[in-house]
Amino acid sequence: MRVHLDSEKCQGHNRCYALAPELFDVDDYGQAVLLVDGDIPVELQEKARLAASNCPEFAIKVLES
Amino acid sequence: MTDTVDSRPERPGYVPPIFGDSPEGTHVWQRVPYDPAHYGPVSDFTSDFDHGDPAYNPVAPTVWKELRDGGCPVAHSDRYGGMWVPITHDTVHEVAYDTEHFTSRAVVVAVGRPGDLALPAPIGGAPPITSDPPFHGMARRLLLPAFAPKQIEPWEPEVRKLCRELLDRIGDITPGESVIDAAVQYAQHIPVNVIGRMLGFPAADEDLFRKFVHDALERIAEEPGTRDGMDDLGEYIYDQIQDHRANPRDDLTSYLLNVEIEGQPVNDDIAGGMIILLLIAGIDTTWSAIGSSLWHLAQHPEDHQRLLDDPEVMTFALEEFLRAYAPVTMARLVAKDIDFHGCPMKQDDWVLLPFPAANRDPLKFEDPDTFVVDRQENRHAAFGLGIHRCIGSNLARLELKVAIEEFIARFPRFELAGDVRWSVGQIRGPRELPVRILAVAD
Question: What is the pLDDT of residue B5?
Answer without folding.
Answer: 39
